[in-house]
Amino acid sequence: MTDELAIQTATELGFDASATREQALADLLAQIMGAYSVSDNEGPLADAIEQFLHKQSHLTVHRHGDTVVASTSFGLPQRVILAGHIDTVPVIDNFPPRWLNPGDPLIREDVAAAHPGERVLWGRGATDMKSSDAVMLYLAAALDGEHVAPAYDLTYVFYDHEEVAAEKNGLRKVVETHPDWITGNFAIIGEPTDCGIEGGCNGTIRFDVITHGVAAHSARAWMGVNAIHKAADILNRLAAYQPADVLVDGLVYREGVNATLISGGKGTNVIPDECRVHVNYRFAPDKTIADAKALMMGADCGAELGNGEHEATGGMFAGFGIEMADESPSARPGMDSPLAVSLAKLVKERTGRDPLAKLGWTDVARFAILGIPAVNLGAGSPLLAHKHDEQLPESELALLADILTQWLVAR
Amino acid sequence: MTDELAIQTATELGFDASATREQALADLLAQIMGAYSVSDNEGPLADAIEQFLHKQSHLTVHRHGDTVVASTSFGLPQRVILAGHIDTVPVIDNFPPRWLNPGDPLIREDVAAAHPGERVLWGRGATDMKSSDAVMLYLAAALDGEHVAPAYDLTYVFYDHEEVAAEKNGLRKVVETHPDWITGNFAIIGEPTDCGIEGGCNGTIRFDVITHGVAAHSARAWMGVNAIHKAADILNRLAAYQPADVLVDGLVYREGVNATLISGGKGTNVIPDECRVHVNYRFAPDKTIADAKALMMGADCGAELGNGEHEATGGMFAGFGIEMADESPSARPGMDSPLAVSLAKLVKERTGRDPLAKLGWTDVARFAILGIPAVNLGAGSPLLAHKHDEQLPESELALLADILTQWLVAR
């Protein structure tokens, strides 16, 4: 129970039939954390998950690449999707994982204070998001329609390449190639939320705001036009911007417009003929991408991904050149759907926490595009995601399993 | 006389004893232009110049690296230095040189219009500055104190590595290693000025103006502080700057403060924690480097080359971080010295041109540091320097030789 030695890399997932639920959850988590699965290396873990799910006779299992999808067919009127990515960000001396006993100096003070006397699983993926994966695997076995009968049909999605570029995202690929695998009335993504609900997500667009000048030797600057000086008003408009708080379906989303990169100039003695300010607008789910672009560059600017520079005809950067770099839609939280309302009520009872707006972009937006209301709900602290000292107090596994079981089974 | 064939590479410099002055000047120019001497390749041309000067029995010849210095010892009360660099910028299909006859389409329209019916020497170095070098070589032979007696002792400096980094500059090296070779009451540098006088030069300092912020994910921008937004006021101050015209010793110098480079940010989704604006201040010769720095960053800022970032305590960028990158002093035009006055009077008579301020930094500043008044006066158009179609109408050689001979000989 309190073995501090390194956990061996799992080649097979499973738990003893006589194990308690707590023991089964702990074993599953230790096994999948022991499987190295930094993005691009998900294969062995996907194999183990596929084998584990195949053993559950009530599930139909599909695989595309390193994404595994398993569905029940109980004939129930509604279907809930439980999704978790199985890749992690790169390790930072935090693989393989270890169980830490109470008092171990590797346990963070905030974790120890909130969970005194509790052992902690430490290592890459502990919060983002192998703890939620472990709970979902456990539920995939336990909610078998025989020993435990859920109120909804269920689809489990374990997917690859969430931590890297969107083009590699396994959930995106399955949605595009096998849309019939991903259907349902509600989806839960197990991103770490400390077992609270975080709903929807801001959208994001990125673009260059561009000024042009005329190059000249800096000893004869008046022969040229300084493009960097012309960028002063771009930065003035950015500096004057006040982040807006926007209420959508009862949740508050904070927007933001920020320069993230700036570049200009060709040499230390040359009047610069171009300056580019890379701007990121994070917009609330009350806006479409088109709405967001209209606010930044005017509705008829004409700048699209890959079509070069266009002059902003209106909006915050009216009069400057615009070149689009990236765009991802927002997702409404869907907190007005009956399933979301009942889940939020239960989470409030168990944790005292009200739903919060998700500010970063997450895969809930993919479900939103499909018309499936989705929320983030997972074990572990979002503040520890990607950190060197990622860790999970063991009781969070049972808490998440409790909440999901109670909500999926009770009517 | 009108041979358009490529001129053969010179291995020896000289002209026929029976040649006219015009023929001697043309031969010398064709010979030294035929010697390839892009910076780092000055050796063979320096050898030929050294041999040519050694043949003049009235000269004492020294050599340091590829810089050749030759001096008279007539025992006259004043000494004038004539200096020219022998290197060129890289060739652009303009080597070897060619004589062009009137009507040749390679002759620029502006040159043909100003010099109708005149042949033109075309190729790398024609104006910058082998034409002036040819005139100085001719004078080195002709002003021998016997057939022609100059009014001043003379020192000729033919130096290497002017077109590249200052650390390689041959004049700088000789001044540092053999300061006794470079003494005098007045100096003329043969940089192309169309046979006008350009005096003094602006000084230049370059430095980074720096803002600091706090990095954060751009989805939670309010957790950070945006260093690029903080740079707005740097650009505002630059954009508001009006170039000052400063009168020094009768010549007008235009100053300038310009951003030449800007950079900031670490990623498209990260609030930037630093922004750097690279600023170039070109200041008139009424100011020292210390004066210039006081105007930009306050007199007691403390920023020096290589000592990192210091906060500006005053001046244009008060309150921002400063890191020094480069500094070169200005040079007063010295137009109030009696030698400069008499030279300017003669140039005005011969060309109708008043002295102008030199705005870029040139080697006259090296003489200014030594306390030697110096001006630029040379054959050829400064606008053709470094161009592909560098070329010189032949009569400019005689014009420059005339002006210098008359001034150096007449009392």
Automatic annotation (TrEMBL), chains A, B:
Keyword check for Ribonucleoprotein, yes or no. Answer: no
Instruction: Name one molecular function that GO assigns to this entry.
Output: succinyl-diaminopimelate desuccinylase activity
What PANTHER family does this protein map onto?
A: ACETYLORNITHINE DEACETYLASE (PTHR43808), N-ACETYL-L-CITRULLINE DEACETYLASE (PTHR43808:SF31)
Which is a Pfam family this sequence falls into?
Peptidase_M20
Under InterPro entries, the record lists:
Bact_exopeptidase_dim_dom, Peptidase_M20, Peptidase_M20_dimer, Peptidase_M20A, Succinyl-DAP_deSuclase_DapE
Q: What class of enzyme is it?
A: hydrolase
Does the keyword Hydrolase belong to this entry?
Answer: yes
SUPFAM superfamilies the record matches: Bacterial exopeptidase dimerisation domain, Zn-dependent exopeptidases
In this chain the Peptidase M20 dimerisation domain maps to 203-296
Q: Which organism is it from?
A: Bifidobacterium hapali
Identify the taxonomic lineage of the organism of origin: Bacteria, Bacillati, Actinomycetota, Actinomycetes, Bifidobacteriales
Task: Name the Enzyme Commission number(s) assigned to this protein.
Answer: 3.5.1.18
What this protein is called in its record is Succinyl-diaminopimelate desuccinylase
Keyword terms, alphabetized: Hydrolase, Metal-binding
> Record's NCBIfam families?
dapE-gram_pos
Any GO BP annotation: lysine biosynthetic process via diaminopimelate
